[in-house]
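can u pls check wat happens w/ magnesium ion
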Amino acid sequence: MTSNSDLFGNVIEYPDNAASERFSALVGIDHIKERLVIEASVLINPQVLEEWSAEHHGLSLDAVRAVKQRAALIVLAGDVGTGKTELAESVGDPIARSLGLPVLTLYPLSLSARGRGLVGEMTTLITQAFEHVRSSVQTARDDKGRIRNAAILLIDEADAIAQSRELSQMHHEDRAGVNALIRAIDSFRRDQLPVLIVLCTNRSDALDPAIARRAAHVFTFARPTAEQREHVLSKILAGTGIGAEAIAKAALLLGPQDEPGWGATYSDLRQRFVPDLVIDAYASNSAITETALLKAAESFVATRPFGTSDV
Ligand SMILES: Nc1ncnc2c1ncn2[C@@H]1O[C@H](COP(=O)(O)OP(=O)(O)O)[C@@H](O)[C@H]1O
Ligand SMILES: [Mg+2]
């Protein structure tokens, strides 16, 4: 039996102020953030819909039952460095606050970090993770059926799992993993557990149909637009004295330069471009200048989209 600490990464209990800050720091994806918090709150505690239905329609609508019958599964899909992990690890904070939950616990399971070990390992991992989370919410409801605590099971970097089983190159162990995941999702749905399952994948194009069909919502993440790049840069370069015009110009230079091309990701900007700029200025013992910003933007090479090959 794998111990709990081997099974999961950094377990977080919400509400959590650090998570709240991480959630707020994500820019340009407000529509995803808002919708995700509402969807997830309803999936974890469908009772809120009964209250809404009684208040606005004076009865329990059949339509509400249709909503409640969905699996509590959300998929975050899209290119690398677009904020999927950051959002998945921080969204528990606004969800816990909006539901007034004293504790909402995140259990993050990363499949890629564990490599591909023995045959049956993926299946065992998934089964053990779901069993652990199931037992963690065993006493989640009080005697009136109200939820006192809930959980989020995050399956990050689930590319092999999320990938379509129809793809012939898929290893049979991965296929067994997908089947185990589907069985676990269905059993959580049957038992109406207050657990949100979040699955992240860099492959938005080849999501397994059986998983896509079960998902209450598939959120698709894209690289920032010119306007969003400008927003990120102006926020992170605040105080440098660099003008809005130069920032707008740099944002354009950090976009796709040829067809077909790709621009910088959010993580390119925050973790590579700006840090390089700072280190360069530090190394030359000077301030960050507009000239340095534009020169760096012009020569910056953005991360290749996931799944594109070198040509
Ligand atoms: N929308 C965003 N706004 C601000 N920063 C972002 C955004 N998306 C990503 N980042 C930055 O990029 C880093 C990598 O994002 P991450 O969530 O790991 O990407 P993904 O999981 O989609 O590959 C984050 O730590 C964060 O600093
Ligand atoms: Mg990620």
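The longest strand covers residues 103-110.
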